Amino acid sequence: MAAPGGRAVLLRRVRVLGLSPVSRRYLYKKKWATTSPRIPATRLALHHFDTTYSLQLQELWPAVRAAMLCEQKYGALLNNFTSADLVAQQLELLGATDFVSEAARRDQCWQESAGVEAEKRKTLEGSGGDGPAVPAETSPLLRASVSSNIKCYTFPRGDISRFRPAWPDSLGILSYYLMDAASLLPVLALNVKPDDLVLDLCAAPGGKTLALLQTGACGYLAANDVSISRTKRLYHILNSYIPKKVREAVSVTSHDGRDWGELQRTTFHKVLVDVPCTTDRHSVMEEENNIFHKIRTKERQMLPMLQLQLLMAGILAAKPEGEVVYSTCSLSPLQNEHVVERAIDIAETQFNITVHVEDLSHFRMLFQDTFCFFSGCRLGELVLPHLTANFGPMYFCKLRRE
Ligand SMILES: C[S@@+](CC[C@H](N)C(=O)[O-])C[C@H]1O[C@@H](n2cnc3c(N)ncnc32)[C@H](O)[C@@H]1O
């Protein structure tokens, strides 16, 4: 039995607390978890990008946004370990061209015309017109691309044709690998030279590892990725594209890349640090494995710290005079230039290592027919997606250890 006057006491208490009494009949328990609408991660990503990138890219943002929401373009990285000449001919018949050798050819023309101009000037000034023309100064990229052996076919600007899946040769080796052609720029920037010891710190699923192997120049290649499942994909790519003998010279590991500076210091001539990032294009298009999911907020916020630690490990793993390329597929300056600036600062103050940023602005000129570059990067280069050249985003910055 209820205490006498119980309800009256309760009503008085409710009034004292400033609450209006509600009949028990109308009370209900809100079920937040099941009834509140779930905002898709892709929408959260787009909202986040609209807020930040519209400030960074200003009038360029609407076009970049539209491109990221459309189907991306692919390049066909030619596999030099199969009958590459035949495959190249077939791709050319489809109207595709190798953007790397096109750039090298263009560079050579510029160099030659610059040489002719210099010779003309010299003759006009009457300062020794008898000798041979002054050889044109070869740009670092020309040297890199000529020796790199990397060939990647793309359809011309504005052409949205797609490549058919690659086919295997008689030994089961696939003819080409379809990838975002802008992903090759960090590899070209690394400029692997014969017998270089190379580290690919965050290698899976392996597009850039494959490109590094196409150079035929790696004396030794260490391909690492912390994720065991993604490392399996890396193995799969190596098995599908690289003959056994070459594959055996690649060491695949699954360490936390942040520890690499402790594992193998001052060892490598070239280090690629292709870090995990907000993968902007994926984040606005795919719900699965989207870093903008609410439950991954902390992980997303911690990305610049992880990127900085990985870049520091890469710098420590490089030999003196060694070169490190840092890359992301994000437009975010917080994950790009800021990480590079912080790393340079930490290398100097905590490790007494001077790190230099190499100028890659000639990439913009050489590859302008294939990619859209952003001209407003403080450090490094950034490929912007565009409907007529829908590659990227791809940020890359080259550092040299003094
Ligand atoms: C952008 S992806 C690399 C793509 C790869 N370079 C390619 O071209 O195919 C970043 C990779 O970093 C790996 N990763 C994340 N944290 C890492 C860590 N602490 N150490 C090493 N790898 C890490 C992820 O598993 C992911 O595969």
UniProtKB/TrEMBL annotation:
Pfam families associated with the record: Methyltr_RsmB-F
A single MF term (Gene Ontology): mRNA (cytidine-5-)-methyltransferase activity
Keyword presence, Transmembrane helix: no
UniProt GO cellular component terms: mitochondrial large ribosomal subunit
Residues reported to bind S-adenosyl-L-methionine: C202, A203, A204, P205, G206, G207, K208, D225, D256, D274
Alphabetic keyword roster: Methyltransferase, Mitochondrion, RNA-binding, rRNA processing, S-adenosyl-L-methionine, Transferase, Transit peptide
Localization per Swiss-Prot or TrEMBL: Mitochondrion
Swiss-Prot/TrEMBL GO biological process terms: mitochondrial RNA catabolic process; mitochondrial RNA modification
UniProt catalytic activity: a cytidine in mRNA + S-adenosyl-L-methionine = a 5-methylcytidine in mRNA + S-adenosyl-L-homocysteine + H(+); a cytidine in rRNA + S-adenosyl-L-methionine = a 5-methylcytidine in rRNA + S-adenosyl-L-homocysteine + H(+)
Active site per the UniProt annotation: C329
All residue ranges annotated as the SAM-dependent MTase RsmB/NOP-type domain in the record: 99-402
Principal location: mitochondrion
Family: Belongs to the class I-like SAM-binding methyltransferase superfamily. RsmB/NOP family.
UniProt-recorded name of the protein: 5-cytosine rRNA methyltransferase NSUN4
Organism whose genome encodes this protein: Coturnix japonica
Species lineage: Eukaryota, Metazoa, Chordata, Craniata, Vertebrata
Record gene name: NSUN4
